[in-house]
Amino acid sequence: MKRETDATDGMKQNRGRVLVETLASMFLLILLGAGCFSLAMSAIGAYNRLYASKENASELRIAYSFVTTKIRQYDISGCLEVKPDAVSGKNALVIHEKIDDMVYDTWIFHYDGYLYEAIVLENEDPEVDISQPIARIDSFDIRYDEGAHGFFIKAGIEGHKTYGGFLKLRSR
User: Fold this and answer.
1) Contact (CB, 8 A) for 60 and 160
2) For residue 157, which of 51, 93, 44, 63 has the smallest C-alpha distance?
3) pLDDT tens, position by position, 4-15
């Protein structure tokens, strides 16, 4: 009988000690879980920033490549012109093209965060409703330099390096 009493006394003495060890283990597990969750959230944030940066760079390349390709494609005397568009009032590239005895103007302009292309009859103004969005960009500037006989082009997205350059015309 004495043995049973000794065993019961030992359990009563360890009861408080086991509770503290269990609580300490639980606290460490919770702390480890919070650390893992914090690391996962940080990795997700870094991935989203990297993805957004690559997407912005892609949009800039698309916009710049589209404009330079159009200029090279229509590098014919009298086909290319820079003038303010009726939508935003900023400089736009206008391409004059004759199709079936009709002259059409292709306007490439920037408005409300997008680069647009609109094909209208000669002497008509472009409208956003009839335009196709090309790329999402924050800024676009195009100028013609008669002395250098070429176009200065700049396209940008906030927080990203601006794409720009000079494109010399071959036609006279």
Assistant:
1) yes
2) 63
3) 555 555 555 555
